[in-house]
Amino acid sequence: MNDILIPECLAKNDHFAAKVAYIDDYRVFVIIYRLDTFEFYTSFNISNTDKKSWILEASKVISELDVPIDWKRPHRYCLARYARQVLNDDSFFGELSWKLSCNILSNEDINRYMLISRLKETVLIKKLNQLSIDEKIQLFILKDWEIEGSIGEGVTYAIYGRKHIYERLYDKEKYETYYKKYWEKVESVFGKLDEDE
Predict the structure, then answer these.
(1) Number of structural domains, the chain?
(2) Bridge partners of 29?
(3) Residue 65 burial (CB < 10 Å; 0-12/13-18/19+)?
(4) Residue 40: helix, strand or coil by DSSP?
(5) Position 36 in a domain
(6) Which pLDDT tens digit goes with each residue over 42-91?
(7) Are residues 84 and 155 in the same domain?
(8) What is the distance between the alpha carbons of residues 10 and 50, in angstroms, rounded to a whole number?
(9) Does residue 86 share a domain with residue 49?
(10) How far apart are CA 43 and CA 85, in angstroms?
């Protein structure tokens, strides 16, 4: 099955895109992303080698999904941007020693990446603090779609990254009650966070 050409996008509508994430000898794993934030939304697998059936199944699945309650909301953008940066940093630093040993990266490349990463964080902090009061409150409401099903790594970072985001709000004292309630909800759904995490 490894020599099958995979279409870039199996199916797409106004809110979601379905892409092949992985193929093994038995099935095809498909990930569905939100188009407003490019966050992982849900996934499914297909036990069929026919590419047309992949496209039909992906089209069916995304057509049955409701528009996310926080579609194109500024607070969701901030959460997704934070999660994406954490994923990028993890990937960069995870491969750092290997790339340095192979002379793929120089110290200048590392410094450039760090500068760009910090500039992106500065933009995020600015956007966070420009959110309306309602949007800041929305930062600390755990959404049903975040709870349901198997969520991707990016959404997990957005869930647990609220601590980082809260610390960057200039007027965080106003939102302390919402923040505490948010963590009570997270712990009731996902369990208590280990101190090492």
Answers:
(1) 2
(2) 22, 45
(3) middle
(4) strand
(5) yes
(6) 888 888 777 888 889 999 999 999 998 889 999 988 888 888 888 888 88
(7) yes
(8) 12
(9) no
(10) 22
